[in-house]
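>> received
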Amino acid sequence: MASFVPRVFLVGAGPGDPSHLTLRGLEVLQKADFVLYDYLLSPRILDYAPVDAEKVCVTELPGEHPRRWPHIHARLIEEAKKGKCVVRLKGGDPSIFGRVGEEAQALREANIPYEIVPGVTAALAAGAWGEIPLTHRSYASALAIVTGHEYPEKGQPQIDWRRIAQFPGTLAVYMAVARLGRIAKELIAQGKSPDTPAAVIHRAGSGYQRTVTGTLHTIDEEIRAAGLTTPSLLLVGDVIPLRPAQTWLENRPLLGQRILITRPRSQSLELLRQLELLGAIPEHCPTLEPVAPADWTLTDQTLQRLKNSEFGWLVFTSSNGVDFFFQRLNHLNWDARSLSSCLIAVIGKSTAKRLNDYALRADLVCDGEMNSERLAEQLSQHPHLGNVLLIQAAEARETLRERLGQTRTVHSLSIYRQQKVIQPESELFDRLRRGEMDIITFTSPNIATTFLEACDEMVRQRLRSQGIRVVVNSSRLSKMLAERYQILSVCTIDPTQEGLINTLLELKA
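>> returned
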């Protein structure tokens, strides 16, 4: 039975938005050891693969299209034979112009078990996101899917444009932009009325989506004037005029806003998804990632003291600290009963929420300006005394420990450290130099400093000139950016994730 368990999954990821990935696609992607993905795929989809999975874009393989195909087949087989769970991520549906037949055949010949996972094809996404009903009881009872770019080495073209022109329904022509004028003329020459409505949808199902409408006679000229390029899909038929003047997609408040998130991966996925649902084009550039200490000896000794009731207060300054603390507690086979003798204080609503995930509620949540100074003030005024155990990052400021130390004994425990993961050589920084981003968000001084030190002067100048806006979540961070880098920023009133989103909505309004 084990020989029939798939080792390679040929997955249709849909076009554009990560929500087009099916539940089955998500299941196998979350188990992947190796992911080979198409270059037009939304990079956000890769966030759902394990952090330690190897991720390779097909453009990194030898050769150029279509001579790259044998290398794709060979790499899938090679990784599968290593015993890995291999996911081949394709845009749209793998069975519609996705070459899944060739890849499946190569796997069969190599005796590699596989599974094909269907996906949302571009035509369906274009219809739904562009509010063009591909079928309609009054206008079209059929849908034809055609390629506008046949494989050049297969010989005589097999598309019969005369019959396509006579098709009694909606035409969806993939990969049509480069040959749009020729295709339109051919359809007209074969009997299609030049006044037949037509639409071209660019990057269907993403925040970049744009739609241009016209007729078969005018559509080529219309898209050239609008500057539409690949990837785009051509729709032809009487259903096109049913598209409303403003679609539901166009009503989304952050439509088309390119927003860069610099927080760690674990703290960004929910925010990225919320921005996508609002129409934004969020990108993720993790700058620092929390990692465990190399040696847990000191941590374990301190946790034993906590269990022995030596501390009256347990203080968390971040949700990362909460996670590492309870992960270690679990490793020691202890649970929340070890904290029964102390009260808990946290900085910020997000840290309090993370504590709730472990079935605990904070006795004190820093209000107002959520920083070390304010928490020290509130704790100093609290009637409950006792020694304080402060859980924080190795790079944390000494402010909280020093101020609390004026009224009580404080023990600081660095339960994690922040590791640089930013990659200044990535293609993202080329786009920043060209100004191809609208907003960058920073949520801590360490993140901002690490990011800006990785930038060259051209990028920093764009930020200074506000060609790219900067949004931050604290006045201290805003002041630091102004004094150290001469960068003006917009500061949220509410430092939570909801506050950040509300500030982005106000900037777009």
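>> The chain has four domains: 7-120, 124-251, 258-287+421-508, 291-420.
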